[in-house]
Every structure is written in structure tokens, then in C-alpha cells.
Amino acid sequence: MITxxxxxxxxxxxxxxxxxxxxxxxxxxxxxxxxxxxxxxxRTAEEVLRGSSRSRVLGYDLVMSAPRVVSALMAxxxxxxxxxxxxxxxxxxxxxxYLARRGTVHCSTRWxxxxxxxAAIGPVASFTHGINRAGEPHLHDxxxxxxxxxxxxxxxxxxxxxxxxxxxxxxxxxxxxxxxxDVTSWTVRRPYAGSEVVEGLxxxxxxxxxxxxxxxxRKITWTxxxxxxxxxxxxxxxxxxxxxxxxxxxxxxxxxxxxxxxVPGRLFRRDVVEAVANAWTHGARSPEVEAxxxxxxxxxxxxxxxxxxxxxxxxxxxxASRLSGGAxxxxxxxxxxxxxx
Length: 341
Description:
single chain, 341 residues, alpha+beta, 2 domains, five-stranded antiparallel beta sheet, two-stranded antiparallel sheet, 12 helices, 9 strands
């Protein structure tokens, strides 16, 4: 899940002073990169965090972390580590673009009524790191998004931004799986249980990096050699735990998709996007996911902004079948929910 840290200060020295040397040479350039162009007005990461006189919040630090097994692959496969880091950055950009299109809105109150409109955010800077405070491989980005909107006088609604975090995280993961599987010799798969696995890799290779030992530890600046030495020592103590059995690729897991769509309560487009992205076991590109969702939901959204679906419990089961069928036969037609699949 994407972690959101609220920023009330423009001081980001904790990121700028950390050059992330532990993955030096694996990424294109330094730790900082622009997810969305600066456009000339904003030149530094500190300038991204700009708010309004009506709010103390200057912006948000979104921590987007790769699945633990993908971080382990970065440490295990030095030949393919650069491609894994590049895939991670591409997936981060996809998630940020989704949030910019769907999750950034401006809320105002007039005569006691709330008015919500889509709005545009400014430049977005990010910092790529590859280790946690416990010295474990942990590929992640700190994405800085300013709260000030670029097309109007106001700030982004934090409430609506958080609404879309689960869908953005699902799009990040499905793009990451797709790209890693495409550019490396590894196969990353998301099983029904929901936690990514690597086919043919001994589970003991990443069991020594549980990803939770970093809590409460002092931050350490690692060198590339120091990080690799630490990881080699960890791997030397690994015991064989077994290999994940490769399975026939499934384009879209209908059972996982149905689990995400047939849920109690209200159903929104973002929920369907999350379900489809997670159900694509070996990953898919974001346009492919959203195209399938949009053509299947055509005419079913009650509000273009809220994007809530007007479907009954029975229709949701049919919707899951239509989505699953659309992934196999193509996305060039819409589907009626009024009859049995």
C-alpha cells in the first residue's frame, strides 16, 4: 500500500542529503528525478512543496514501495538490477499519472454545500532508494506532491487523494510485474493470496529480509559496496525453504477479480480498477487495465466525478464475468449487465 506522509515544512534535506549510494549505478542519474516536468517555474524539490495561506499543509510525501520479492531480486540479480530499478520508476510514474488524472480535486463550500471539481497539480519530484534502516534491500520512492493546485487558487483535497491510493498502488504493482517479466529472466506473479511471488526462486533467498526490522532504527547512509556486502552475509545464512512452482500464465484471474468486485457497500470505478489490476496475475500496462474498465462500465457511472457505479449485488457478479471475458476477447465492445453471462 502507498504510504502518505503529510508535509507541513518545505525542508526535504532528509531526502536531498541522502544520495542513495546503495543503488548507485543502477539508476539513471542520481536519486532525485522529475516524475512530472517542472515547467521552468519550479527548479528544486523544496519548491514542489507549496501550499495555500488557508492551510498549513504544503504537500505530501507518497512512499511507493516495490513488493518485497522484487526488492530481493534487485539484490540477488546484479545483472538485471538496473532493469528492475528502471521498471520500478516507470511504474511509479504510472501511479502518479493516475492520481493526477483521477485523485486530485478541489473542494469548496458555497452556501453550505460542497462543490467538487477536478484540478491539476504542479510538478512532482521523487527520490529513489534501495535499502531500509535495517540494511535490507527495499526498493522504494519518496514522491513529493505539492498541495497547491496549478490551475486554480486552492489546494488538493487530501480526502479524495486518499480515496484513490489503493487503485494507484494496484496499477503500480501490475505495471511493475509486467515490465519485470518482460525485461528480465524472472517471472513475478501475484497469486490469489495477494502477495507477489517469484517463480523458480527459493523462498529462503528473501525470507531473511522480512521488511519490518527497520522500525525505530537510526537511519544509516550506505555505500554500494557496503550494501552488497551486507546482503551477501544475509544470504550466506539462508536455509532452503522451497521453490515456488511455476504455473501456466493466467491473463486475468476471474476468482481474484470477483473477490474485488463483489463486495458489500458502494462500488466505484477506482474499486474496479484496483480489482482488475490485481487480478492480472503476471501484470499488465495501465492503459490496458483502464481501457478494459472503461469499455465495460460504459454508461454505468452515476456521477462523472464521483464515479460511483449503480449496480446491484447480482449485477456485480455479472460485471466480474464481463470484465474477465473482455480481457480474453478484446476491449472493443461494451457489455450489458442485464442478462446472465
